[in-house]
From TrEMBL:
Domain of life: Bacteria
Pfam families noted in UniProt: DUF3842 (PF12953)
Name this protein carries in UniProt: DUF3842 family protein
């Protein structure tokens, strides 16, 4: 399974995801893409074997991902204080990958009906979902 972690700003969420996925899903081919170099470096330091930066890296890596994990803002153009370009959001949304989106209520995007939770709990839930998807549980790849 090709698992793509996308994060921006300081890369704190991506860092936590990479660290947890590296230990709990060792069979996954993990790639981290930061919308900026700070985020990419944070994920690289957390153990991402492959890391890249920027819009083109998001677009290219979305093509081969089986699972994309990140804050919900990665599907909203201009989210993360403007770091998510329309091309990035489109690439994530049009990817054949299953998306595991973390409901982070920041930057003028709020997900109603989802109670506020500590980031560590959200990361743990996302990692468990990725682990289940890697094991063949859940929706997995869509058949068109």
């Amino acid at each position: 399974m090709n698992v793509l972690v996308i994060d921006g700003q300081g890369g704190g969420l991506g860092k936590q995801l990479v660290a947890a996925l590296s230990t709990q899903c060792p069979e996954a081919r993990l790639t981290a893409v930061g919308t900026n170099s700070l985020a990419a470096n944070a994920m690289r330091k957390a153990g991402a074997p492959r890391a890249a930066t920027g819009e083109n890296a998001v677009v290219v890596n979305c093509r081969s991902a089986d699972i994309i994990v990140g804050p919900i803002g990665i599907v909203v153009a201009d989210a993360l204080l403007g770091e998510i370009t329309p091309a990035m959001a489109t690439a994530v949304c049009q990817s054949h990958a299953t998306r595991v989106l973390i409901p982070v209520n920041h930057c003028e995007n709020y997900i109603v009906g989802v109670p506020e939770q500590p980031i560590s709990d959200l990361v743990a839930a996302a990692v468990q979902k990725v682990k289940a998807l890697c094991a063949g549980e859940g929706c997995g790849k869509r058949a068109y």
